[in-house]
Structure formats: C-alpha cells, structure tokens
Design a protein that fits this description.
By secondary structure, this protein is mainly beta. It has helices spanning 2-17, 91-99; strands spanning 23-36, 60-70, 76-88, 106-119, 125-140, 143-145, 148-150, 152-153, 155-168, 172-180, 186-190, 197-199, 201-211.
Length: 212
Amino acid sequence: MRKIRFFMLAAAMFAASTMNAQSSFSFRFGGLMVLGDLAESQTVTSFMDNTRAGNAAAYGAFLGFQFTQGIGDGGLGVFISADALWTPSNQEIRKMYDEHSWTKPQFINIPVMAGVHYHMPAVTVSPYFEVGAGVNFFMKTPEGVSGNLREYDMTESFAVMGGLGVMFNDVFSIGVHYLLPGIDGVKISTKDVDADYDLKASMLALRLGFHF
C-alpha cells in the first residue's frame, strides 16, 4: 500500500506542476523478450513437484497508453502510462504440459508508471529518451490438472523502466525499452498453499508508438 500511495502522490504532483503546458496522448504496442528467472526453464516430471516448474516465459507482447505533459517549449515533459504485458510459457514448458494434458500458465504484468520524457519537438526526426518508476501488478494464470488447478494471487511491486528511440514528425516512434517489474523480484503467491516465492525478472521491449 505504501508503494501505491507514493505513486498516487507522484501523479498528483505531476498534474499540479504541468498545468497550461502542451500535452500529448500516445498509444503503443510491441514485442517482449523476457530475461532473468522468469525466462529460465526447469526440467521436472510434474508441476506439483516444484512450484517453479512453469516459470519459463517465452517472447510476449504488450499494448499500452501514455499521457505526456510538456514543461515549457524545450521538449521536456512528464508522463503517466499504463501497459498490459502478456508472456506465455516457452515451447519446452508448453510441450511438457501438453503431454500431460495440463493447463499451461501464462504471465501478466501491468506496470503503471510516472516519469520524464524528452524529445526535440517540431523536427522531422528526433531521438527520444524516457525514464520512469511506479507500481507493477503481476499475476501468473492457473496451471495444472483440470478440476484441480493451482491458482495464484495478483501481487504488486515497485518497478522502474527506461528507454530510448526515434520519433518521426511528433507522430510515430520506435524504441527499445527496459523494464524491471520488481526491484526485489516479482512475488508469485499461491492461493490456499504455502508456496510463495520471488522471481528476479526483467523485460526488453521493442515499442512502436503513435502520438496524438
């Protein structure tokens, strides 16, 4: 809760400090490459033998929105953003689960961020940079035998991100972004079973954006 209150305070300061300046709205989507513990495969014969059996995410996808409020006329601005990131299990895990007719887990991350953005406005091609921090909501979907699925709670963690890329005519952008969804890792919380654990995870995203 402390992390959420911190983010709400940052959002309020964001709104108060940027009144009467130029603003923009953007929609973005792209692909993800999962890094860290979340990308590692474990070789097991049953998902019940090891609560980390399915923690082997493949490449994923995401979409999101961002509101950016300019500060003056120099290209500097502050932003608030929200994204939905989806990563399925990798091919090895999917094959193992299919052989046993198990339900395969998937991984959902929803980072809500506030931060600083910079690009040179009103030029044909401009580099852009941004950094942010906020709250990431993480959930692993149910897995296991039909009728006896292992279910998981949504958890929250303090997250940071950074990215750079190129913007064209203030309308279209392409960039590479790095997301650390949990400074201390994301927590996988198993419902009704004392089998919680943390995962060190990070993601690299190729992001395409449209700005209005």
